[in-house]
Predict the 3D structure of the following.
Amino acid sequence: MRAASLDRMATKTGPRPAYRCGECGQTAAKWVGRCPECQAWSSMSEVGAVQAKAVRPGAVTSPARPIGEVDVRSADARRTGMDELDRVLGGGLVPGSVVLLAGEPGVGKSTLLLEVAHRSASESHRSLIVSGEESAGQVRLRAGRTGALSPHLYVASETDLAAVLAHVDDVAPSLLVIDSIQTLAHPDVDGGAGGVTQVRACAAALIKIAKERGIATVLVGHVTKDGTIAGPRLLEHLVDVVLHFEGDRHASLRMVRAVKNRFGAADEVGCFELTDGGIVGLPDPSGLFLSRRTEPVSGTAVTVTVEGRRPLVAEVQALVAQSSLPAPRRACSGLDSARVAMMLAVVERRGRINLSARDVYTATVGGVRLTEPATDLAVALAVASAAGDDPLPGGMVALGEVGLAGEVRRVNGVARRLAEAARLGFTIALVPEGCGDEAPAGMKVVEVADLASALHIATRSARVVSLPSAT
């Protein structure tokens, strides 16, 4: 009876309204302040009931063909002239592709794309930069400072989408750079620039024209305070490539990571150096992540991380000091704080090293961020070395994931990691069991089963005691 009365009430009042999240598209029967799917605040808006309509067949843009007869030349990438960026993109920019480049303010996104547009224009390919954040004069000053002047490079300062499309008609570029998508406003869409609706509408219009005319398009995106791309999450699904531009504003190192790539690997990374004269690629950046010293220092350990397919030798530093606080401090820079906290617990419990009344500080060198589990053993050795003021031997690298039971687990790509370490002059390596047969010539590899044995071997070799049997 109660259900029947509710049905009668719904019939009288009409269909119940529906609400849709502007970030992820999740629908709900009633309004909520936070989307239950993507956890975005104040993103639910009423859309009403959706009426299904029959769709009739329409005209096709091109007939369907057997897949073997499809011309693949339209998907051939054109090199940007920057090898590190081409590595991340999968060979270069594909005509008609849309790339989203996101990064923090001041990290160097505009400088990188100005160099890319300049190199494209130097090959007689027209390039158009549309800046909604800077005037054309400001872009011209940066181009003069970095030497990015070319007669085929065009610059416009616009925030209206209709004006941007007019510039595209006039210039007919092969490369279009929009800096940034959050500054554009669609004249037929309500809301201010940077809003969810505006960003979605502007991106859809630019993607459509890029596909129709075969224009390689790069959209610059802002990031939120937690490092994610600002705007609707749908934007990342619409574009072909999503790149993150990372780097410490107080260091010269910059990294471009591929998060999504329809034309290549989605785990590649490119390294750059930002200088007063512009931005240049770093084909061999390993030396930036190591300290130069003549004698070993306690609290330092070297490991080899893999970014994409590239092995990078990096140094982990730790400092352990007596604490005067009831709760000792734990600080991290360049490392995952949760993983470091787990390593501290393993070192204290399995390594028999008391850290309960000591402050522990851990950091990396050169602004690199190490997040993969293969760096666990180096972090544990650095903390133990700092706690005992006992330097680890020079010329040693440590690889391996450390479990809560203290066991050292295997990691992928051991052969590539050891080859890179040997190339830079390292002669000793601590690796998990079963990895000794992957040692390069001239390197002594010691297999360790757990953290306790790794600490025992590292301290013994530091005191110039002969190493145990190694492969």
